[in-house]
Write a structure and sequence with these properties.
The chain is of the alpha/beta class. It is built from eight helices and eleven strands. The strands form two sheets. The protein has a seven-stranded antiparallel beta sheet with strand order 4-10-7-8-9-6-5. Strands 1-11-2-3 form a four-stranded parallel beta sheet, with helices on both faces. A hairpin with a 4-residue loop joins β8 and β9. The longest helix has 18 residues.
Length: 267
């Protein structure tokens, strides 16, 4: 349960009513749901539920909420993207279920001026240069450089240093065949995409760079505090660490800020 000063306290009767109503819809699509190991759920004390892979934004939390309420008589406060909380119906309904709103940098991206490229992919994969860019005004240390989306995924890397309007150093290099091709103008068939071990030495001749976006650094202090309040009060926190739903059979890369929030608060 949330503390009294929580900006989004859980309303128990609303939680139970909405769970009952939406469970009717879930039953229309799923004939039977058989949880395994539900007897292991503690009946009291703080718990962090981690769920993955995340196939559906609505069905996954509903099924988990129903199983945990039925088997352990407990309610979950979910970590929910701030972007979802701003939607009219979803935000209004979720606000009564005791959520913890999480701001995501990738929800606040803005197109950057000019284009970016990797001048020395093998020798210095952390160095990013720009053509017509204005990094000093449009980017910030701790923020992200985000490449164009390909096949539903957009590679991104954290900014460690800004050296003028056309030079940035990354905290970690971009990875993946697609990202390398975008930043060098060359493809890498058969490579694993790790720039430190890639077989490419420089960008293609005449390559001016790729379009990109910047994302701000997000301060998650309020998220950590809200999670701590719920755990300290003996409540349950639910988290989808992939940061979004998808239809893939494998896990997406886990979002560091989502995983860090409950683990930091637990300590």
């Amino acid at each position: 349960m949330a503390r009294r000063n929580d900006p989004r306290p859980m309303v128990d009767w609303v939680y139970d009513l909405m769970l009952w109503l939406f469970s009717i819809l879930v039953d229309l699509f799923f004939r039977e749901v058989h949880p395994r190991g539900s007897w292991k759920i503690p009946r009291r004390g703080p718990i962090i539920f981690v769920a993955a892979p995340h196939a559906n934004q609505f069905v996954d939390p509903l099924i988990l909420m129903r199983v945990i309420k039925t088997e352990a008589q407990r309610r979950i406060s979910w970590l929910i993207a701030e972007k979802s909380m701003r939607r009219r119906f979803i935000g209004a309904a979720a606000s009564m279920l005791g959520p913890v709103s999480v701001g995501r940098a990738l929800d606040s991206t803005k197109p950057g001026s000019g284009k970016i490229y990797l001048p020395d992919p093998r020798g210095d994969p952390l160095l990013i240069r720009g053509n017509g860019t204005n990094f000093e005004k449009e980017a910030e240390i701790g923020g992200l450089l985000v490449l164009p989306t390909v096949n539903g995924l957009a590679a991104n890397a954290e900014i460690a240093e800004i050296h003028g309007p056309e030079e940035i150093r990354l905290k970690k290099e971009f990875k993946g065949d697609v990202a390398i091709a975008q930043l060098t103008g060359q493809s890498l068939p058969g490579q694993n995409g790790n720039l430190a071990n890639g077989g490419i030495h420089r960008a293609q001749d005449g390559f001016e760079g790729t379009a990109y976006k910047t994302a701000p650094k997000v301060d998650q202090t309020q998220v950590y505090n809200a999670v701590f309040d719920r755990l300290n009060a003996g409540g349950c926190i639910g988290i989808f660490p992939e940061g979004g739903s998808h239809d893939r059979t494998e896990l997406l890369p886990l979002k560091r800020e989502l995983v860090k929030a409950p683990s930091t608060s637990w300590r």
